[in-house]
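Notes from hallway chat w/ T.B., transcribed later so I don't forget. T.B. wanted the structure written out for a chain they're using in a teaching module, and asked if we could keep both sequence and structure tokens in one place. Agreed to drop them here.
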Amino acid sequence: MNPEIDLRVGSLSKIETWITSPTQSDDGWTEIKSFLFLRLTTSDGVEGWGEAFTLPCREIAIEKIIRNLVNAVAKDKDITPHLFRDKAAKISDKHRGIDFSAATSAIEMALWDIGGKISKKPLANLLSENPKPSIPVYATNWSNKETGTEAIGKRAVKLIEQNFGGVKIYPLQNRSPEEGAKFVSYVRNLIGSETPLMLDLASPDNAKLAYELAPLVAPFNPYWYEEPVDGENTRTLADIRSKTGLRIVTGEKQCGLPHFEETLSANAADILNPDIAAVGGLLDMTQISEWSLKKNVKVSPHCWNSMSIAAAAMLHFCTSIKNAEKAEIFPEYLSHVMKFCDPGFKIDRGHAVIGEEPGLGVSMDTSLLKSLCSDYNEEKLRK
């Protein structure tokens, strides 16, 4: 954290929220889920954007939590990300849950964006005195439409040609461990032996699948082995890490600090991937990074989000910490958000290069955004 920055943003006067409708990617490769955006406006007219992680059937509920929390701090004259986190913790009474944490993540993100605009500094410079100008990125190669080995293999090659610094695939998606290993071998042969190939098991209900798959894919040099079991199953994660020798990634479904402290204490992970828009906020992310650094553990934030507001926050955060791993990009989501925003970063030779605009550096066209939404709310805040 840059100690020279005053993060007081003043008082809040207005809150707006947008929930986009789910749709198909332009190329038909996958479904694009709903996104939940937030814009806060201060009494001085400074605007800040945030984004909450969400899934079907809970978007409206998270939006309501956001508005309730913002109203709870609306009377504060000099709100800061730190003061908001403290107040949200008291409100939750330590009963957070990922939906509550998604709401606090979005609000804190917006406060950081405002702070950057007031101080005329990019978010990365608020988080660090010497941030890096870019961060390595990889492409998540996921589709709920195309699951065939050849189709995903061809897509992997295309993504590498598009300058991504690695590709992630899902070997257990409609496959047995044996079939998954053949799939990994096929993709590895297509992209070459040097290209980082990440494997995401997506938390199979049966941990035996992760144990069976590991020795079958080890010869293909996977860059990491993500979510071999649910992140709450710390003991099994530690055992898989010990017995397989693969780099274990976990944390995307978890929120709050105690879980990550326990995971680190159990030596259950090589890389933590809390979701940038669900963990609780950038302050929690920073604490997790600091704890991880002491254990020689990397941080690669999960970002199953819009590739605009949340992705910008993720990239600024990654450039500000010492132990960042490759950051996650959903290529189809990135193409989609370009219809209504400039995300404030560009992909170049395997890296995301962030701009020098203040705050998150994202420019949103709210008219175009609203045309893609199923729900929009605006509320003037009472003093």
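Follow-up for T.B.: Residues 97-119 form the longest helix (23 residues). Might be a good example for the class.
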